[in-house]
Specification:
four-stranded mixed β-sheet, Phosphorylase Kinase, domain 1, alpha+beta, about 40% helix, five-stranded antiparallel β-sheet, about 450 residues, globular
Length: about 450
């Protein structure tokens, strides 16, 4: 990765040295952005897994503002083709609700967005507070209705912009950075030997789970099938990662490929909740992976997984989840028998119902009309593997490697398997959802 003030600041922040990180950001603002930056205040949180955000205070105003909100996103290898890094104008022109930045810098390794400072709440914080019975500023009903209004707008926009694009266009979208390019090393769009986060997070590592006397080596864990709360799933972790490498490869998209305009990475920490006089509104920001030709089946994956199945707490706040959730694991021959007490909260179930009704079912139905034979194709496999990639590649789920502990490691990998693999006898939370939205 290109070394820059921003990448160094991210490393300092990961180590907990916020003052050092803030000094680097001040230097960056002065030297690279030509801003009269007096101070920088970072806002680290559990959601910004690959980014930093905060507020710059300026001596000389910039576009009339003496304070600006900044956010930047970085992957391990900035050379992996994020050509159109920020696409807020694209979303604005598509009439999707988006906070347009005051300025953006797109030089490799120095990508950053500057916004007016908002007092609105991030939707992620509102939802978590509601789930924990804390003051949220909004009611359960208001949160669900705001989500439904956004889903209604997004679902309609997908149908409006759905088109058949030459494969090179959707294959070149930055959104693949969050999926295929985390599985491999290099820039090829074709399936590759394991690399990237898959290799650094999991391969040749040992995995500690509650109930096991000794950690499981990756070679053993990768070969085991999973029985989760009594339900046996077809595929092992090794099988799922290998399938994702093949199925998620941009080179293997259909030609032409159904594509849409969308944000692509609309997890709720990238969404403001505005209080309106007559109605509330969700507003996107940080559209780093937005595009005009997003593969239609990939466009809503991140929002579906990260706003629903990643909660309550286990992915973003594993320390809290370790005291609130339970998991037990034992090896039964060639099966990993896992018991977890995780289930979506009523809020997340309401979000899932909204996604099914207003986004997924209409989109899949239109795809079936657009492409004869679609209903009998393997669209479900693609969606499952994309959902599987969300938790396994966004954060290292191995206990002790980063934020996760044995309990949340077992929960997280179990949920990933539930997403990626059909159950042997059918059903399950994800299976029922996919059956509900099938054309």
């Amino acid at each position: 990765m290109v070394t820059s003030y921003l990448s160094e600041a991210r490393e300092f922040c990961k180590r907990g040295d916020l003052p050092a990180a803030e000094q680097l950001i001040i230097r960056f603002a002065r030297e690279k952005l030509d801003l009269d930056c007096q101070s920088a205040a970072l806002r680290p949180d559990g959601y910004s897994l690959n980014s930093l955000n905060g507020v710059l205070t300026l001596g000389t105003p910039f576009k009339g503002e003496t304070q600006v909100f900044f956010k930047y996103h970085q992957e391990e290898d900035e050379s992996k083709g994020v050509a159109e890094y920020y696409n807020s104008k694209l979303l604005e022109e598509a009439q999707l609700p988006v906070d347009v930045p005051l300025a953006a810098r797109s030089i490799t390794g120095e990508q950053i967005l500057l916004y007016r400072v908002r007092t609105d709440a991030r939707f992620a914080d509102v939802c978590r507070n509601l789930e924990h019975g804390k003051p949220a500023g909004f009611t359960f009903e208001e949160a669900v209705e705001a989500q439904r209004e956004l889903d209604r707008a997004v679902g309609a926009k997908y149908l409006e912009t759905l088109h058949l694009a030459p494969r090179l266009q959707p294959a070149g979208e930055a959104l693949h950075q969050l999926f295929f390019y985390r599985l491999v090393a290099g820039e090829s769009q074709s399936p590759q030997p394991p690399g990237g986060r898959l290799k650094s997070f999991y391969i040749d590592q040992n995995f500690a789970f509650p109930g096991l006397a000794e950690p499981l080596p990756w070679e053993r864990l990768a070969a085991l099938r999973w029985r989760i709360n009594g339900r046996l799933y077809r595929d092992s972790l090794g099988t799922l990662f290998a399938a994702a490498n093949e199925v998620m490869a941009p080179a293997n998209l259909p030609d032409p490929c159904p594509a849409v305009v969308g944000h692509g990475d609309a997890h709720n920490a990238n969404v403001w909740l505005e209080r309106g006089a007559t109605e509330n509104r969700l507003v996107y920001f940080d559209p780093a992976f937005a595009g005009a030709h997003l593969p239609a089946l990939l466009a809503e994956i991140k929002a579906t997984f990260h706003n629903i199945f990643a909660h309550p707490d286990w992915l973003y706040h594993p320390d809290d989840a370790a005291t609130q959730r339970q998991a037990s694991v034992r090896v039964d021959g060639e099966v990993l028998d896992v018991e977890i007490d995780w289930e979506p909260t009523p809020l997340r179930r309401a979000f899932l119902a909204s996604k099914a009704e207003l986004v997924w079912r209409p989109l899949l139905q239109r795809l079936a009309e657009l492409q004869p034979g679609f209903a009998s194709s393997d669209w479900e496999r693609y969606v499952r593997l994309a959902l599987f990639c969300c938790p396994t590649l966004v954060m290292n789920l191995r206990a002790g490697a980063d934020r996760h502990n044995p309990t949340t490691s077992a929960i997280g990998l179990a949920i990933a398997v539930m997403c990626g693999s059909p159950a042997v006898e059918g059903g399950g939370l994800i299976g029922d959802f996919l059956t509900e939205v099938a054309p």
